[in-house]
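Milestone 3.1: sequence recovery, worked example.
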């Protein structure tokens, strides 16, 4: 999600956001990441253990969340640690309040 891009009808963007959080495991993953701070970001192995799902499943869910900009990754040694993109989260919070006003 970009702040510069302004469109009259951002329905597709809204749909992508809601679709990204529509899966129960993905929503649990996102909520877990929301509780973390950037220095405490978690790698796929840790996320998989906490959620009780495979590393492959976590990776696929992270790909979707990254695709809509909600999650970012940072390489630390051999692992990538994931955290919530706070800037995008604020934009989506604004988007959500706009949708709820309708």
């Amino acid at each position: 999600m970009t702040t510069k891009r302004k469109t009259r009808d951002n329905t597709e963007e809204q749909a992508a956001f809601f679709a990204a959080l529509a899966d129960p495991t993905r929503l649990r993953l996102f909520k877990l990441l929301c509780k973390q701070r950037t220095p405490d970001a978690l790698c796929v192995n840790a996320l998989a253990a906490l959620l009780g799902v495979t590393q492959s499943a976590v990776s696929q869910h992270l790909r979707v969340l990254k695709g809509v900009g909600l999650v970012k990754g940072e390489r630390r040694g051999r692992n990538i640690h994931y955290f919530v993109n706070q800037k995008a989260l604020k934009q989506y919070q604004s988007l959500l309040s706009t949708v709820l006003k309708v």
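The domain at 11-101 is CATH 1.10.10.10 (Arc Repressor Mutant, subunit A). The chain has a mean pLDDT of 86.
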